[in-house]
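This entry is passed on directly below:
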Amino acid sequence: MMIRLTLVMVQLWVVCAAPGPSAAAAPSPVVREDITDKVNLVLQAILAMTEDPLTLKDRVELSVNADLVAHLYLAMDQTTVAGVKTLTAHDCSSEPLAKKKSRLTLSIAAPVITIDTPAYFMNGSFVDHINVDGQGHASIVIDDLDIKFEGIGEINLELSDFWMVFDEIVLDLEIRRWKVVFDNLMPGTDLGEVFNSFFSMCGPEIFDIIEKNMNEGGSLLDLVNGLFPPSESGA
């Protein structure tokens, strides 16, 4: 009996001491590289050649469609954006995947962005039954704007030819608050100031709607891929 017990214990020791098949096949850890400094160098080089305030050549159009909240169309011409030179990148990263693809995160923030237009046009409805309309001068002051893009794509980290192209992307917009002033809103009534106060109070919620519309629309990918495109020689 003692000999048999000893043999069993030796067999158990051999089995437990032998290296398992998973030990040799353990995958190497994924390296997630912080690329914030490189993105900032490229971003600041671009901003150095950018006017501030920046004049937008094209008409700015925005639709807000949220049941029980608002269905509005807003157009702005001759729009300027002040504070663009304060934009900085933060928490940007690249995680390598298969086939030269990477999981990319690009975050850009600014303390204050001011949008001004001498010619806005707005119409639609509020709470599904109160008509809203107006046109004239408007200003929008945004505090602590934070724009984050996440997706799958390709990136070249060489500073002499830095580029980033997304195949798929998700936008996350965050603000602390904003103040909007639309002159001549609801003309002939005393409701213009009320609506300006309401829109100012609901800034983060309205940005959530804008974020949802942009993520579900078809223009976000082209817009972002225009930020850091490949050079003609590197294409």
Summary: The longest strand covers residues 130-156. The helical segments are 2-17, 21-24, 36-48, 192-201, 203-216, 220-225.
